[in-house]
Design goal:
The structure holds 2 protein chains of 2 kinds. Chain A is an all-alpha fold. Chain A is built from 11 helices and 2 strands. Chain A is elongated. Chain B folds into 2 domains: 71 residues, no CATH class; 177 residues, MetI-like (MetI-like fold), CATH 1.10.3720. The chains are: A mainly alpha, B mainly alpha. The interface between A and B is large, with 41 and 40 residues.
Chain lengths: 296, 325
């Protein structure tokens, strides 16, 4: 990581955007991702039913296949689950929770990890050694196991799973940012800024940090995909979110019990959506890396 | 070499010490430890006895050493649901997990290595692109989802594969193995393949990257100039240099396989330690949970230590180069 160097980024934001979208897969991935963001965040307005409102959910309508019509006249386009929830609505709300958890934990891990990485690169010496030892230690344990242990101790809840995801993710940001910041810190513009007697913190946050942003962006996209996948896995194991607020992972887990009896839609449909989100985020991350060219 | 090993062992012990402190305080801060180690049927007399046994009437730092002492003797309490010592329960279930993990490892290498070599030799062909796309998908998809689709396809729709359980086992050196019976193998195939996918993706990427690097090295050119046949170059000169990074990464990633075994075991109802943990969480069998945590931390520290030592044996630069962070 210490030999990390990247070519200066050529072109204006408009030029970068044009290059980013010059590949069909990137366009598709971006459209899919934006579509799910709109669907997820617009869920309260789009969804035919509020799946959290027990008055709107009828247990008698449980396990109906896609296209069934309830006696109140509501069509369940994607069927219903074991509790009689409309799958379409449950999935829209599920996308919402999965995205919120993924984005929020990604942003918090980014802020904390970037801060640690910058401090390590700036202070060098024993501070650097200590911080990087902690990062090494953190990264030597598999992410899923650490998150699992934390959630076993903390219990269920949106705040708890976000905390657990931040704990397992910050180290990636810290290590990458430190690597880039060390390279950037040795460049001429930093010497020039020092020559102007600018303060250390000012150089760090106003000069070095902006030049680390492309790399941070790439790591952030990848980590967000990972966070969504991890949250789904943990929820599937019954550890993440409370059953009253089903994310995509929990919906899949609920449907797993019905899979063997051929009621595929409860599990498979949320699974397909989860897949689409994760793959599109990964494709976006890959494309960003190609464009911004940090050697990760 | 001895100095290096002693240094790494000391470091590992420090990590273990820190981890036991964390687990101890985690257990103590999150709730009254009496209720963690005593079952819910415990009456007042039994509670007092447990408090005295655990030394909870003593100061906190002294309690920690009592905890540490109990730990070193393997006293982590009895499982609520099974009624036997938690640690022996873990060791009872461990062979199933290890069998699954090692089979996954073998599959990852057996399939990943040839695919990676192919993709490295002919990077621009259609097949190579497919291989790389496969590795990206295998790496980024959630393991539980892949397992689910496998069950849906091969067990529910086609009816070829059993969805749950371990099948027949044979006892080898006191541990039950599914690998050696036809029925066991039949049960093992899907979970092992599911578990191997992430590792396989890593092996493919590493092998391909290694191939691209090694192929252009001078010693390969000289081997060609010497008129050594292409097949021999590949099998000896290229392979030897390719394997060093793969072996070390696999060593490090083996921990990840054990971790993901928790997921795979609960999907396929494989009776290993991971399934046991999820069941224990479900019924709040706290001694078992604590025992699992400590066991897993211990295993990881030992595993990391072994990988470090192996790595320094394979590549002397690591121990001679000193601290490179």
């Amino acid at each position: 990581m210490t030999t990390l160097s990247h070519a200066p980024i050529a072109g204006s934001p408009r030029e970068l955007a044009r290059r980013f979208l010059s590949v069909p897969s990137a366009v598709i991935a971006l459209s899919v991702f934006i579509l799910f963001c709109i669907l997820g965040f617009g869920a309260p307005w789009i969804a035919p039913q509020n799946p959290y409102d027990l008055r709107q959910v009828d247990i008698l309508d449980s396990l109906m296949p896609p296209g069934s019509v309830s006696y109140t006249g509501l069509t369940y386009w994607l069927g219903t689950d074991g509790q009689g929830r409309d799958m379409l609505s449950a999935m829209l709300y599920g996308i919402r929770i999965s995205l919120i958890v993924g984005l929020l934990s990604g942003v918090l891990a980014l802020v904390f990890g970037t801060f640690v990485g910058l401090i390590a690169a700036y202070r060098r010496g024993w501070v650097d050694t200590l911080l990087m030892r902690i990062v090494d230690l953190q990264l030597s344990f598999p992410t899923i196991l650490v998150a699992l242990i934390l959630l076993v101790i903390l219990g269920r809840g949106v705040d708890k799973i976000i905390f657990a995801l931040v704990v397992v993710q910050w180290a990636y940001f810290a290590r990458t940012v430190r690597g880039v910041a060390l390279v950037e810190g040795a460049r001429e513009y930093v010497d020039a800024a020092r020559g102007l007697r600018l303060g250390g913190m000012r150089i760090l946050f106003l000069h070095i940090l902006p030049n680390c942003l492309p790399t941070i962006l790439v790591v952030a996209t990848m980590q967000m995909a990972m966070a969504i996948s991890l949250e789904a896995t943990l929820s599937f194991l019954g550890l993440g979110l409370p059953p009253t607020r089903p994310s995509l992972g929990l919906l899949i887990a609920n449907g797993f019990d019905y899979l063997q009896s051929g009621r595929y839609w409860i599990s498979v449909l949320p699974g397909v959506v989860l897949l689409a989100i994760i793959i599109s985020a990964n494709v976006l991350g890959d494309r960003l890396r190609d464009i911004l060219n940090p050697r990760l | 070499m001895t100095e290096f090993i002693i240094k790494r062992v000391l470091q590992a012990m420090i990590v273990l010490f820190v981890m036991t402190v964390l687990v101890f305080f985690g257990v103590n801060v999150i709730g009254n430890p009496v209720y963690i180690f005593a079952s819910s049927e415990c009456d007042q007399a039994c509670l007092t006895k447990t408090i005295a046994e655990l030394g909870l009437d003593r100061p906190l730092w002294e309690q920690y050493f009592v905890f540490l002492g109990n730990l070193l003797q393997g006293h982590l309490g009895n499982s609520f649901t099974h009624g036997i010592p938690a640690l022996s329960l873990i060791f009872e279930r461990l062979p199933a997990t290890l069998e699954l993990a090692f089979c996954a490892l073998a599959l990852a290498l057996g399939i990943g290595l040839p695919l990676g070599v192919w993709a490295g030799l002919r990077p621009d062909t259609f097949i190579s692109r497919c291989i790389m796309a496969f590795s990206m998908i295998a790496f980024s998809l959630p393991v539980f989802w892949i397992g689910l689709i496998m069950i849906l396809t091969f067990s529910v729709q086609l009816g070829w594969m059993p969805a749950i359980g371990r099948g027949d086992t044979v006892e080898v050196f006191g541990a039950d193995l599914s690998l050696l019976t036809p029925d066991g193998l039949h049960h093992l195939a899907m979970p092992a393949f599911t578990l191997s996918l992430i590792m396989m993706a890593i092996v493919i990427r590493l092998t391909r990257a290694g191939m691209r690097e090694v192929i252009f090295a001078d010693y390969i050119k000289f081997a060609r100039a010497n008129g050594i046949r292409e097949r021999r170059i590949l099998s000896t000169h290229v392979m030897k240099n390719l394997l060093i990074p793969i072996v070390t990464v696999l060593g490090m990633e083996f921990g990840g396989v054990i971790a993901f075994a928790v997921v795979v075991e609960s999907i396929f109802s494989w009776p290993g330690v991971g399934k046991m943990l999820i069941d224990a969480i479900g019924v709040l069998d706290r001694p078992l949970i604590v025992a699992y945590l400590i066991f897993v931390v211990f295993m990881f520290v030992v595993l990391n230590l072994l990988v470090d030592i192996l790595y320094s044996l394979l590549d002397p630069r690591v121990r001679l180069g000193g601290n490179q962070t």
